[in-house]
Amino acid sequence: MRLWAGHSTHFLRDTTHNQIAEKLATAFFSYYRYKPSPSEMNAWRNSLRAVADVFREAALDDHGVMLEYQLPQSSKRLDCLVSGRDGTGDDRAVIIELKQWERCHDPVGDKVVTFVGRADREVLHPSAQVGQYQLYLQDTHTAFYEGERPIRLDACAYLHNYFPVDEDVLFAAPFQAILERCPVFTADDVERLSRHLGERLDGGEGLDVLRRIEESKYRPSKKLMDHVAATIKEKPQWVLLDEQLVVFEKVLACARDAFHNRRKNVLIVKGGPGTGKSVIAINLMAALLRDQYNAQYATGSRAFTETLRAIVGTRGTPQFGYFNGYQNAEPDAVDVLICDESHRIRESSYSRFIPKAKRTMRPQIDELLTVAKTAVFLLDDHQVVRPGEIGSVAYLRQAATDAGYRLHEYELETQFRCAGSEGFVAWVENTLGIRRTANVLWDPQDAFDFRIMATPAEVEDAIRAKATEGASARMTAGFCWKWSKPLDGGSLVRDVAIGDYRRPWNAKPGAKRLARGIPRASLWATDPGGIDQVGCIYTAQGFEFDYAGVVFGADLVYDFEQQEWVGHSERSHDAIVKRSKGRFTDLVKNTYRVLLTRGLKGCYVCFVDRDSERFVRSRVESNRHEAGA
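-> structure tokens emitted (629 positions)
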């Protein structure tokens, strides 16, 4: 999808007559069904006028121009792409990323801080950003990798309001390598940028090249699939055992069936915490990509998806996305769509922040089933922790049946978490009143190290001691304290306050800027700095640690008179769950079930409410393993 495409002379005419932004706005509304923001309109006017001046200087009068091109299977849009042939007759294209920046500072890694969106924000260096777009197209768009003479693609950035100062961080030494591949041009570089474009596109005939781009298809290249498959295979912890292999082989068989016989398949794989659902998903990605199937991995968790993207690297990110990323995808565009944490599937792909006028009524499950030839749903019915999450075995079964797809169901039972103790998960579920099991009492002789401690400080001390020994360990808590934005310097407010204990939550997902050593929310579970913050359900769900510390808040307390758990929404700071009315108690039970079962080897917990602590202690056979014993 693109908002405008045509001959370079038409682009120059529309810009000169001040019509280009209006034409983009019309196309934008036609596609998205709502109007672009005034700031986006102004950006189009200002940036495209600057680009037009460069095109005139470079005499690009027989070229193709594409504006606001949406990358396949992504919400990202390229600002401008210009196409043509070089002096040898080869097809060429250049991506131009446009910025209205005036200054930047504080470089860290591949990021800088600049004023954008009415605030100073940490953003990718322009060369890094446009370099990702270039690699994305080269890896996923057939025009740029298929055939004897694929289109040669270059990328650059044009900061038309930016006048560099001496020793400007934009051109600092750490960025030199990426600047060489994807140069940045500033306000006084019109001649240099014109020459850069002219050297690559001086043969003209750009409409033919543009047509070739628009007519080609989205499909991951062999190089990309080999890269992701090889990266995953380097991780020895992702090994399949027992019934995991049965599911694995069935998915491969369904992929072959759907690909060769054009029969749609849906597989539903149910399993509790630690039964290896994600291990199956990751191994499937490696095997399917190695066999040249277009496999994609989707979740509803930003933290989990971003962690996987960090593991496979920038190049592998196109294959790892979100449930809400298939709204505009073509039918059967993905050979196998692996939907992990499918209990987080929502009614639709639009969040509560999207105005009603911009929403459609299409169910999210319909988007997922439509885009995939084979869809694999891995889920746990008892991990629904927000009212908008509707994924369940029954819901998915009904959707697949209504669509007429071949349905296969499996249940994983072998426990790979909690030291292999199926009994601990069953005991947690029974103790929280989620479901009745035979595990009424916990036996401290079990290999899984479960302890009830008196204070959060004791829990944290134990967690830090394990981390010092080389184990992975994190503190988590129920959502019973407010979650503040970072302070001006990027440090975090110590919101989790219990007596003398004061700790910050992990950073908010939308944090603009963080102090050194504080990981982004999406990387809290894996970054070493995460041990200094308390994780909430939304950053902990989907991950596992050797040892999990849990602060059990007062939003769920045990009432001895009623002999049941009672939810207290007035003590919760989760605004969405608080509005769930009759579902609040069940959702909070599921929350603590998730937090208590994150540990591979042990779980240490303290209770804010003493009656709750007393009840849980009564479900432990002996106090021998409790704190201080």
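The two ends are 65 Å apart (CA to CA).
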